[in-house]
Write a structure and sequence with these properties.
The structure is a single chain. The protein is 69% helix and 9% strand. It has 6 helices and 3 strands; from the N terminus they run αααααβββα.
Length: 193
C-alpha cells in the first residue's frame, strides 16, 4: 500500500527533477548587465522555492503523523503546523522519529541535506546583491553578507554548480523524508493490526 506521503513525495521529486533540468539549461554568462540581473533574481527565486518545497513536505509529514485522515491532516497543516518556524517543525519531526524509534542515522542524513539548502536559502534571503566589476567592465553579480565591509564580508556567487548542488540536496532531503514517512506509516498500520 502507499502512505499518505506518497503522492506528495512523487510530486516533490518531479518538482526537483524539473528544477535540475531547468538549471542545467541556464547559461550563467549573460550578455548584458540587465540579463545577468534577471538571471540572478531568477536563481534567487528558485532557491527560495526549493526550500519552500522542503518546508511544505515537512509540514505535511508532521500533519499526517498526527492525523492519517487527509481532510483532518490538511486542516492541521494549514491551521497549526504551518504557523511554526521551520526549525521548530524540524525539532518536532525529530522528536516524532525518536518516539517511534526511527533510525536516527536516517534522520541525521535527511537533516544534513536540509541544512545545506537552508543555509543557501538564508544567504539569498538576507545577503545584499552587489555587482562585480573587473577592469571597469561589469562581470556579474554576487550576494554579500555585509556590503559595508566588502573586503571581510562573506560572499556567495550563484553559479551553475551551486544551483545543481542545491537541487541535489533538496531532492535527497525529500527522498529521505519520504522514506521516514513510509516507515512511520508502516508502523502505524502494524500497530493498528
Amino acid at each position: 500500500g502507499s502512505s499518505p506521503a506518497g503522492p506528495i513525495l512523487c510530486h516533490s521529486y518531479l518538482f526537483c527533477v524539473k528544477f535540475i533540468i531547468t538549471n542545467l539549461n541556464l547559461h550563467l554568462v549573460a550578455n548584458s548587465p540587465k540579463e545577468m540581473h534577471e538571471e540572478y533574481v531568477h536563481n534567487i527565486g528558485n532557491i527560495i522555492a526549493i526550500f519552500s518545497v522542503i518546508d511544505q513536505q515537512l509540514t505535511h509529514s508532521i500533519a499526517t503523523y498526527f492525523c492519517a485522515d487527509p481532510e483532518y491532516s490538511l486542516f492541521l497543516a494549514q491551521h497549526a503546523i504551518s504557523h511554526l518556524t521551520f526549525n521548530t517543525k524540524l525539532d518536532l519531526y525529530q522528536k516524532i522519529c525518536r518516539r517511534e524509534k526511527i533510525d536516527q542515522s536516517r534522520f541525521t542524513k535527511m537533516k544534513k541535506h536540509i541544512h545545506y539548502v537552508q543555509e543557501i536559502r538564508n544567504k539569498v534571503a538576507h545577503y545584499q546583491l552587489e555587482a562585480i566589476f573587473k577592469e571597469g567592465e561589469h562581470k556579474g553579480f554576487r550576494l554579500r553578507k555585509n556590503a559595508l565591509f566588502p573586503d571581510t564580508a562573506e560572499a556567495v556567487e550563484l553559479t551553475q554548480e551551486l544551483m545543481i548542488k542545491v537541487n541535489y540536496e533538496q531532492m535527497h532531503a525529500i527522498v529521505e523524508l519520504g522514506i521516514i514517512d513510509d516507515d512511520l506509516a508502516r508502523r502505524r498500520r502494524e500497530a493498528g493490526d
